[in-house]
Design goal:
By secondary structure, the chain is mainly α. 50% of the residues lie in helices and 7% in strands. The chain contains 5 helices and 3 strands; from the N terminus they run H-H-E-H-E-E-H-H. The chain starts with 9 loop residues before the first helix and ends with a helix.
Length: 157
Amino acid sequence: MRVSTDHQDLHNQRHGILEYANVHSLSPIQFVEDTVSGREKWESRGIGLLLTETAIATDIIIFSEVSRMARSTLQVLEMLECCVRRGINVHIAKQGMVLDGSMQSRITATVLGLAAEIERELIVLRTTEALAKRKAEGKTCLTTQRATIDTFKTRHS
């Protein structure tokens, strides 16, 4: 599980993964939490150690959703390629998908990773535009580097 900031709900990710594992009779479950930003290369995060050294062939790694794997399509594909090379299966709980190295899985992972990357870019763009508008109107803006929409709403409602 990857959580970039304190504002993201680790409990919801854990619950979704446990529910998925129960439905698909996947046990035992061992959670690996990674609080490093997805902007960091996956090899230098906790998931890198898991995928390149700890996990063995036939292991199953469950992510709550594709966007929790990495920020960029390239990193998602690199992670999946590493898993295919090592015989590790990847499950995406929210979408109920199994990415096992087949051609269909690779195409699906590419599309999902790209969609997640585009959505993140749009969120950043909308947030930046909203903050610029507030500044132009002479209103105060958050000064933290990673302002979230929830924090913005809480402080300015």
